[in-house]
C-alpha cells in the first residue's frame, strides 16, 4: 500500500459490538523563535493543556456506508469480507460511526475550533476537557473547503482559551509543539520544527499548509500547533503516511487562514468568500513561451464568467493577472486565496498583462456561491509532439465541427464555436496528456477555430515559423483552460 495524505479523524464502526475502523488524523507544527531548543517544554505545556480538548462524535450510517468505512486491508481482504458479510446479515441493527479528534478553546464561553471532518455527519458531539469533564456540543458553523469547524459548549465557569498567533512568522526551522488526542488516549504533547511552508497537498482549493515533523497521529485532527510563545500558528489537518502512523510529515492549516474562516463561521455559520468570476491557471514554461513571456509568474485567465465582476470590468480570456490589491501574484494558488479572503463588496485594483501590455482594472468583489470553487484552477497540460511531427492530425485525434448530434452526445451546449475532439488514439500523445473525446478546441494562438483544417493550418504555421510551442484554449464541461503543445523539431 503506497503512502497517502490522510485526514486525521479517528473513527470506529459500531454494530452491537464495536468494530475497529479508522480514518487518519493529522497534525501540523507551529513556529518557534529562531533559537535553540528549550531545556524543557514542561512550563509551556502546563499552561496550554487546559485550552485543548478531546472531541468524540457518533453518527448513524447505512450498512453500505459502514462497509465503505471499513479499513483498507491491502491484499489480505479476509477481515473486510467477514465484516462486510456480518453487516449485510445484520441490517436491522443500528450502525454507527464513532469519531475521535481534537480541538481548542477560543472563547471563555465555550467556542471550540476543530476540523470539519471530525464532526462531519455527527448526530452527537461530546467535548472532554483536560480535567476529565465532558459536555455536549452543538455546531456553530463548518467549512469543508478549509476543513474547519466551530462548535459550542455551555460551561458553568469561564474556560481557559488559546490565542491565535501570526502564522506568517512561523519560519522553517522554528520549534513548535502539537497538542491533541492521539488514538483516543487523551491529551498528549509532541514537539518538532516547522519543516516546510506553503504546501499544496490537493486537500482543497486553498491549500497553504504548514508542514511539521512534530509527531502527530490518529485523533490529533483539529488540535492546535503552538509556537514557543504559546500562540496557535496552525490547526492539525492531515499527515503523510504509508502505514497510518506518524512518519514526521504532518500538515496544519495556517492560523491566519483559520482565524478569518472561524470569524465568518461564528458570524454567519458558513464562510463568505470573495469571487471575481474567472477560471484561472498557473503558467507552465511552454505556455509562457507560447505567449512570448519571459517569466512564469502570474495567474492566467482561462475563462471569464458572463455577468461576473471580471466580465463587467472588461477582462478577457488570456489576460495574465500580475497584481491583486497591491499583492504580487506568483501563481493561481496565491490568487485563489487572495480573492477568497477579500471582503465581499470590496473594490480591488488589478494589474494585468494583455498581449504584452500592462493594463489596470478595478473590480468589485462579489460573494462566492457555496456550490462553486472560488477562483477555480483550470487543468493544465503540456503536450509534447513527437520530434519532427508538425501535422496536428498526428497527435492522435479526430476533429469535427460541433453539429447538433455532437452537441447532444457530448453535452457541449448549442454554441457553434470551436472544434470537437471526436476520437482519441489511446496510444497517442494527446491521450497521454489527458486530451479526451468531447473536449472542444476553441482557439489556437488566440485565434478562434471552426474546422479541423483551421487547427491543422495554425499548428503547422506555428511549427514552420520555428516556434517551440503552440497555445490552445480547450473547453471541457463548460470550463476552458490553456494548453501548450510542445512542437517537435522546433528549437
Question: Could you list some keywords that capture this structure?
Answer:
alpha+beta, Thrombin, subunit H, Pdz3 Domain, 9-stranded antiparallel beta sheet, 32 strands, 18% helix, 35% strand, elongated
Describe what this molecule looks like in 3D:
The chain is built from eleven helices and 32 strands. With 491 residues, the chain is an alpha+beta fold. The chain has three domains: 271 residues, Thrombin, subunit H (Beta Barrel), CATH 2.40.10; 94 residues, Roll (Pdz3 Domain), CATH 2.30.42; 105 residues, PDZ domain (Pdz3 Domain, Roll), CATH 2.30.42.10. Strands 2, 3, 4, 5, 6, 7, 8, 9 and 10 form a nine-stranded antiparallel sheet that branches. Strands 26, 27, 28, 29, 30, 31 and 32 form a seven-stranded mixed sheet that branches. About 9% of the residues have low confidence.
